[in-house]
Amino acid sequence: MEKIIQITAGRGPAECTWVVAQVLKKILEEAQDKNIETVLLQREVGEENGTVETATIAVKGNDAAVFASSWLGTVQWIGQSQFRKMHKRKNWFIGVFEIEAQKNVSISQNDIQYQAMRSSGAGGQHVNKVSSAIRATHIPTGIAVVAMDSRSQHQNKKLATERLLKKMEDENLRQLKNHVGSQWKNQLNIQRGNPVRVFIGSDFKKNKVQQGYKGVR
C-alpha cells in the first residue's frame, strides 16, 4: 500500500511556509515512530530560512492509508508571527492533501527488444569485428539505451537492461513530479475551518482539536 500526500501553504504568507516545515517534520517523526516507511518526493523551500512552500511524501506500508488519512485536511497553528513581530494575526492554516498515485510504467522482459550493434571507439580490432554493443528498447514507450562498455555481448546486455530500468524509473519520477505540480495548482486555496490538527506556540505543541472550530483570520 502506498499513499502520496502533499503539504502546502497554498497562497499563504511566510508564516504558513514555516508551518509547512514544522508539519513535514511532525509527519516524518510520527511515521518513524509507527515504523511506516516514507520517501520525500519533492520539497520546495520558502523565501525565509527554515520554511517550505510545499512538500510531497510517499507513505508506504500496511498502515499507510490510515496514517495518511489522519493528516488529511487543514492544519492550524496558533502563534505569533516570527517574521512580523507586530502582526496581530495569530491563526495560520496550511493544507495536507492526498495526491492520486500515477500508474507507473512497468517493465516486462517480454517488452524489451535487444539489438546487437557494432561498438565504436577504442578497443582494437576485436571491437571492429564483433557486434558486442547492445541496444535495449522498451517497445511500449520507445525508450531505448545502448551499452558498449564491455567486449562481452552478454555483459553489455546486462548493463543495457539495468540502464533501461533506471531510465524508466526516472521517467516515472518525472511524470509524478509533473502530476504533483498540476495538483498543487488546484490546492492553492486552503480551507480555514475544522482543522484536523491544531498546534500552538513556537515549540509547535499539538493541541486538542475542537470539532466545529472556525478559524479567525
Describe the structure concisely for a colleague.
With 217 residues, this protein is of the alpha+beta class. The protein has helices at residues 14-33, 64-69, 124-129, 153-185; strands at 2-8, 37-45, 52-60, 73-78, 91-99, 112-117, 133-138, 143-147, 197-200, 205-207.
Could you tell me how far the N terminus lies from the C terminus, measured between alpha carbons in angstroms?
38 Å
Largest sheet: 7 strands, mixed
| Percent of sequence in beta strands | 25-35%
CA radius of gyration is: 24 Å
| Overall geometry | elongated
What is the CATH domain class of the largest domain? Alpha Beta
* Helix and strand pattern: EHEEHEEEHEEHEE
* Topology-level CATH name of the largest domain: Alpha-Beta Plaits
Number of helices: 4
Query: What is the number of strand segments?
Result: 10
Please list the strands of the largest sheet in the order they lie side by side.
Answer: 2-3-1-5-4-9-10
**Main structural class:** alpha+beta
* CATH architecture descriptor text of the largest domain: 2-Layer Sandwich
Helix content: 25-40%
Q: Average the pLDDT over all residues and give the rounded result.
A: 83
Q: Show unreliable segments.
A: 124-128, 210-217
Work out the count of structural domains. Answer: 2
